[in-house]
Amino acid sequence: MRVSLLATLPLLGVLALTPRHGSAQVSVTLHLGRPVVVTNYAPEVYGDWHTSYRRWSPATVYYYNGQYYPKRVRGARAVQIYRRQNQYFLPPQDPAWANRGDHRYNYSRRPTDEDYSHAAPPPRPNPPPHRP
User: Fold this and answer.
1) pLDDT value at position 4?
2) pLDDT tens across 76-132, in order?
3) DSSP symbols for the chain
4) Cβ atoms within 10 A of the Cβ of 19, count?
5) Closest of 87, 99, 77, 95 to residue 56, by C-alpha
């Protein structure tokens, strides 16, 4: 019995070292985060840009696959927008603003016509309080 056990050990070693064909499965998850809703600028909501823009914060979002994301995504296009509180909106399309109206803004990342056409409509302005 000892001889047969010693004879099977090399056979088991060869079987253990033989390459096996198996399925390799790779799963890639791209974590983009939640998309950000970007609206068009409206002076009745965000204020006249000549006097209100200092209360806005320039922010960069990344346009990818029809959505805007707050985090950089490979293959996405960086777009400079404005943020006020939790609202994100495109800059004004006024030619005076386009001629460097805000020195904090990165004009090399300004939105394209496509951005303006895909942006959501601005929220309705808050109505004045009702007085009886």
Assistant:
1) 60
2) 999 999 999 899 999 999 998 888 778 899 999 999 999 999 999 998 876 666 666
3) -HHHHHHHHHHHHHHHHS---------------PPBPEE---HHHH--HHHHGGGSEEEEEEEETTEEESS--TTPEEEEEEEETTEEEPPP--HHHHTTS-TTS-GGGPPPHHHHHHSBPPPPPPPPPP--
4) 5
5) 87
Cα–Cα distance measured from residue 38 to residue 82, given in angstroms and rounded to the nearest whole number: 9
- Examine the pLDDT at 75 and tell me if it is beyond 90: yes
Distance CA 71, CA 102 (A): 24
* Tokens representing residue 68 in the block: 């805007």
Tokens matching residue 80: 């400079």
pLDDT computed for residue 1 by the predictor? 52
